[in-house]
Amino acid sequence: MPRHLEPSHACACTSGQRYGDCCRPLLRGEREPADAVAMMRSRFSAFALDYPAYLWRTLHPSHPDRARPEAEILRNFRRASRTMEYRALSILDSTATADRARVLFLAQVGDRGRDLSFLERSDFLHDGTGWRYANGTVRPATDFAAPDATRLDTF
Ligand SMILES: [Zn+2]
């Protein structure tokens, strides 16, 4: 369910910042996210706001989706944006070196009233230009007694 946001609106990534100060310049390609957490946030906003080209561009070349036809992947991203509700993102934990980062997050999402919230441990690699999404391990939030309290070492 894509939404349109004005720069003064609260950002779709639920950071609490204004969209114009948070994910908007990233989605518009005006600058790269400062770190992997900011990249993660911008990808959540890209799903919420229907920016499939951004989702494709920020996949690392080693991501399995990169081996499939771009048009098919763009279609899948667009379908996800149009059918799912992207309610909230919580970054639970992260680690990073100069060129590798790992981010654990809780995405509160739904599909026509059905709660499909999940936790994901995402790996990001810096390709020299910016942080790119390399792969992720997903588990349903219902697997966890306290999803919000989960950390990388307890995922
Ligand atoms: Zn944001």
Structure in words:
It is built from 4 helices and 5 strands. The protein is α+β, with helices and mostly antiparallel strands and 155 residues long. The protein has a single domain, classed as Nuclear Transport Factor 2, Chain: A (Roll). Strands 1, 2, 3, 4 and 5 form a 5-stranded antiparallel beta sheet that branches. Strand 4 and strand 5 form a beta hairpin. Bound molecules: zinc ion. Zinc ion (ZN) binds next to helix 2. The site of zinc ion has 7 residues, from helix 2.
At a glance:
The chain has helices spanning 24-27, 36-49, 52-57, 70-83, and strands at residues 84-96, 100-111, 114-115, 118-126, 131-140. By secondary structure, it is α+β, with helices and mostly antiparallel strands. The two termini are 29 Å apart.
Essential attributes:
155 residues, alpha+beta, Nuclear Transport Factor 2, Chain: A, 4 helices, binds zinc ion
Bound molecules: zinc ion
Distance between the termini: 29 Å
Overall structural domain count: 1
CATH topology: Nuclear Transport Factor 2, Chain: A
How much of the sequence lies in strands comes to: 25-35%
Helix content: 10-25%
CATH domain class name = Alpha Beta
Uncertain runs: none
How many helices? The count is: 4
Q: In CATH terms, what is the architecture?
A: Roll
Characterize the biggest β-sheet.
Answer: 5 strands, antiparallel
Strand segment count: 5
Describe the SSE topology.
Blueprint: H1 24-27, H2 36-49, H3 52-57, H4 70-83, E1 84-96, E2 100-111, E3 114-115, E4 118-126, E5 131-140
Antiparallel strand pairs: 1-2, 2-3, 2-4, 4-5
The structure holds zinc ion.
